[in-house]
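Obj: model holo form, ligand = 2P0.
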Amino acid sequence: MNEKRAVVRAHANIALAKYWGKADIARNLPAVPSLSLTLENMRTTTEVWFSSELAADELVLGGKPQLGKPLARAAKLLSEVRALAGVDTFARVRSHNDFPTASGLASSASGFAALALAAVRALDLPVPVERVSALSRAASASAARSVFGGFVELGASAESAARVAPPEHWPLCMLVAVTSEVAKDTGSTDGMQHTASTSPYYPAWVADAPRLFTEVKAAVLAKDFARLAPAAEQSALAMHASMLAASPALIYFRPATLAVIEAVRAARRSGVAACFTIDAGPHVKVLVEPQHVAAMKRALSDVEGVLRVLESTPGPDAAQIAEFPE
Ligand code: 2P0
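Output (holo structure tokens):
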């Protein structure tokens, strides 16, 4: 086979209605529906290069060669794409995130979405975007959502994600208050299994999550911030409540996490349209209406423990680009 290569850029997404827990572990199907916003300024760029000269798959993340679990996860996805294409050539993968990796900033979402689309494009597979989303979801469920831009849903037990509204539907801004640069101790896959098997609050989370998802989706479609804010915050906090009640407790909050929550609540009391969400990490993501971005950004930067604040508008679909940036 000739050498086949593609470069793809995929954007991270932050869930406004959270996914936490699996309906089917082997197939990696989510237990609850989720809805996310894809972000313009948090991107993974991935090059996949299939070559008959390779004796095994290779993975380089941020310039560092990977072995063990990260390589195995990428190789599994590559093997699924190889099976679809009917080829057995190995691939060399190079990937770069322009934001911190593995600390609750959704790097696995953009990473696996970029890998799935790049592998499919490198092999010229004529598959619909839903299939690319399903391949991404099998590797990491939140990655199914990063295939699409704008507002995106992944249903409970769904094979693939679907667009709820395009990026231009609602020009909100997401501020990310970064509170740590180090990788987290417990990854999401292990964390959600631990929650499901030891937390007495996990069944309550699974039971209530669809209601919160429905509320978040209705608020997004209506562009109703006053409706979105309480539902999105309750989704994040109910998810964390299920983790806090696990044994031993799974605590992703740091002191700065709570300080940022306080700052958002204070800003809201003074009329700023902002709400927070928190993933499996210590950072706080703050959704804010465009006219309040500057004030909210200043308030977040003043919080002790906030290292920096990233800012992003709604982002586009994952897409092929010409070159991997050196
Ligand atoms: C989300 N998170 O909806 C939630 C909120 C983290 C907290 O999706 O096991 O890395 O690979 O399917 O997708 C992170 O979970 O987990 C996640 P796997 P994934 O964004």
